Amino acid sequence: MKILAFVALTFAAVVAVQQQPPGISQPIVEDCGFGGSVVCVNRYAAVLPYHFNRSITSLAADYDFRNTSVPSAPSFSLLENASFVVFDRARGLQYLGSNPAYEFMFAVGDNVHEAPVYVPELNKLFMSQLPPVVAPISTMSQYLPQLVIDLNRQPLALEEYITEPPIFAPNGGVYHDGRIIWASSGGFNSSVLNGTEQRIALHAVDPTTNVSTVLLNNYFGFYFNNMDDVAVHPTSGDLFFTDPDYPWFNGRVDTAPQLPTASYRFNPATGATFLVEDTIDQPNGIAFSPDGSTLYITETGALTGSIDPAVGPGTKHYNTTGRRSIYAFDVAENGTKISNKRAFYLAQDYIPDGLKVSREGLVLTATGHGVDVLDPTGQLVVRVQTNHSVQNVQFTGERLDTLWMLGNKGISRVHWNITGQVPR
Ligand SMILES: *[C@@H]1O[C@H](CO)[C@@H](O)[C@H](O)[C@H]1NC(C)=O
Ligand SMILES: *[C@@H]1O[C@H](CO)[C@@H](O)[C@H](O)[C@H]1NC(C)=O
Ligand SMILES: *[C@@H]1O[C@H](CO)[C@@H](O)[C@H](O)[C@H]1NC(C)=O
Ligand SMILES: *[C@@H]1O[C@H](CO)[C@@H](O)[C@H](O)[C@H]1NC(C)=O
Ligand SMILES: *[C@@H]1O[C@H](CO)[C@@H](O)[C@H](O)[C@H]1NC(C)=O
Ligand SMILES: *[C@@H]1O[C@H](CO)[C@@H](O)[C@H](O)[C@H]1NC(C)=O
Ligand SMILES: *[C@@H]1O[C@H](CO)[C@@H](O)[C@H](O)[C@H]1NC(C)=O
Ligand SMILES: *[C@@H]1O[C@H](CO)[C@@H](O)[C@H](O)[C@H]1NC(C)=O
Ligand SMILES: *[C@@H]1O[C@H](CO)[C@@H](O)[C@H](O)[C@H]1NC(C)=O
Ligand SMILES: *[C@@H]1O[C@H](CO)[C@@H](O)[C@H](O)[C@H]1NC(C)=O
C-alpha cells in the first residue's frame, strides 16, 4: 500500500510537471537590484505556466499585469511591490540609470488630474483637476481651480492656481513660447462657473501675470466636444489637439456633442483650424517625436459612453476588447501633412491616456496604474508601477530627468535617466 501510494504521488507530480508548456524561461521575474524596487521580466513572460488568469478590468476594478494569477511561477509575485518593471534588460537598466527613484508625492481626490505643464523659467509645474461626475448635471456647481507646485520651494506643496479670467477644466496642456497652452474640456452657462460662461477652448496663459486669453472656442459655431490634449509641432508652432467626446457623459458640459470625434491642427497666426484625423473613436493623448516627423495619438475608445442628448452623465462603459492603442503617423511639409496611420502599441493596462515623447525618442504613455515606456518601434522597455491611476505625465527639472505622474488619488514622480524634450 505504502509503495503504491508513493508511486501514485510520484506519477501525479510528473503529470503536473508535464502539463506545463515547454519553453518557459525560469525565473519569469527576478530582482534586478535597488532593494527590490526594480524587477526584470525575462523574455516578456512570453510563456506563462498553466493555470494562469488575468481578471478582466472594469470601471470598478483595474487588474494590471501584476494582478495576473500565476500560482505555478512564485517569482511572478515579485511584481507586486516593484516600482520599475524592466522588460528589455540592457536598455531598460540604462534608461533607469544609476539611481532610479520612485516617490509618492501627494494624496489627492478621486477625480482626474491632468494637463501638466512645466514652465522652465519659473521652475513651476502647473496642472488641472477635473470635477467629479455629477448627475443630474443641473446640480453641477464646481469651478475647480487649477494647481501648481513651485519646485524652488521645500517642502514641495500643491497649491491652488487661478488665472484671470479663470479657466474651467483644462484636460491637456503644453508649454509654448513662455506661455501655458491649456485645452479646456468643460462648458457651462455662467450660473455654474462663477459668472463666466465657458465653452471648450484652447487658452494661452502668461504664467507670470496669470492673465489668460482664448485662442479658439468653436468650429464654425459648433462647440468642440472635449479638447482632451494638445501638442505643439516643433517647427511650425501649430497646435494639434484631440477632440473625443467624454465631457457629456462625464457631466462637464451642458450640451451634448455637436461634432464627430476628431483631431485638429490650429494655426495661431491665422486662426485657421484644420481637420487632421477622424478615424480614431476617442482620440486622446497627442505628442510629437523630437524632430516633429512622427505624431502619436492614443485611441481610448474602450472607454466610452452615451452621447445621446437625452442620456445624461454617468453612462460610461469600459471594455477590454475595445480600442485602446497608440497610433503613429508620418508628419511632412512642416506639420501640414499627416499620413500613414499605423498601429503602434496596445496598452497592457486599461487605456493609453496622456503621452509624451522623450528627448531620446521614447514614447511614454499613462496607462492604468502606471506608465509604459516604449521605443520608437513600439517595444515596451520599462513600466513604472504606481498605486494610483495615471492620466498624464510631465518632465521637470534642469535636466528634465524627473517625470511627474498625475491621476485619481495620487501624484507621484520618478528620477531616472530618461529626459524630456526641451520646452520651447
Ligand atoms: C479568472 O479569475 C476570475 C476572478 O477570480 C474568475 O472570475 C474567472 O472565472 C477566472 N477565469 C479563469 C479562466 O480561470
Ligand atoms: C493589483 O495588485 C496591486 C499590487 O499588489 C494591488 O494593490 C491592487 O489592489 C490589485 N488590484 C486588484 C483589482 O486587485
Ligand atoms: C509587498 O508588500 C506588502 C506590504 O509590505 C507585503 O505584505 C508583501 O509580502 C510584499 N510582497 C512581496 C512579494 O514581497
Ligand atoms: C543614460 O543614458 C545615456 C543614453 O541616453 C547613456 O549613454 C548613459 O550611459 C546612461 N547612464 C547610465 C548611468 O546608465
Ligand atoms: C465659485 O463659487 C463658489 C460658490 O459660490 C465658491 O465656493 C468658489 O470659491 C468660487 N470659486 C472661484 C474660483 O471664484
Ligand atoms: C500669479 O499666481 C501666482 C500663484 O502661483 C502668484 O504667486 C503670483 O503673485 C500671481 N501673479 C500676479 C501678477 O498676480
Ligand atoms: C514652418 O512654418 C513656420 C510657421 O509658418 C515658419 O516660421 C517656419 O519657417 C517653417 N519651417 C520650415 C522648415 O518650413
Ligand atoms: C444657457 O443660457 C442661454 C442664455 O441665457 C439660454 O438660452 C440657454 O438655454 C442656456 N443653456 C443651458 C443648456 O442651460
Ligand atoms: C465589448 O465590446 C464588444 C466588441 O465591440 C461587444 O461585442 C461587447 O458587447 C462589449 N461589451 C460591453 C460590456 O460593452
Ligand atoms: C500609495 O502609497 C503611498 C505610500 O507610498 C500612500 O501614502 C498612499 O496612500 C497610497 N495611495 C493609494 C491610493 O493607495
Task: Give structural notes.
- Residues 178-300, 319-405 form the SMP-30/Gluconolactonase/LRE-like region domain.
- This is Gluconolactonase.
- It comes from Cladophialophora yegresii CBS 114405.
- InterPro entries: 6-blade_b-propeller_TolB-like, Oryzine_lactonohydrolase, SGL.
- Residues 1-19 form the signal peptide.
- The structure is a single chain.
- With 424 residues, the chain is mostly beta strands.
- The chain has two domains: 2-82, no CATH class; 103-415, TolB, C-terminal domain (Neuraminidase).
- Helix content is 7%, strand content 36%.
- It is built from three helices and 29 strands.
- The chain has helices at 2-18, 89-96, 246-249; strands spanning 29-31, 38-41, 84-86, 101-106, 113-119, 124-129, 146-150, 158-161, 170-176, 179-184, 202-205, 212-216, 230-232, 239-243, 262-266, 273-277, 283-288, 294-299, 303-305, 316-318, 325-332, 337-346, 352-357, 363-367, 370-374, 380-385, 392-396, 402-407, 410-415.
- The strands form seven sheets. A seven-stranded mixed β-sheet has the order 1-2-3-26-25-24-23, with helices on one face. A four-stranded antiparallel β-sheet has the order 4-29-28-27, with no helix packed on it. A four-stranded antiparallel β-sheet has the order 5-6-7-8, with no helix packed on it.
- The N and C termini lie far apart (81 Å).
- The relative contact order is 0.13.
- The site of one 2-acetamido-2-deoxy-beta-D-glucopyranose has 4 residues, from loops.
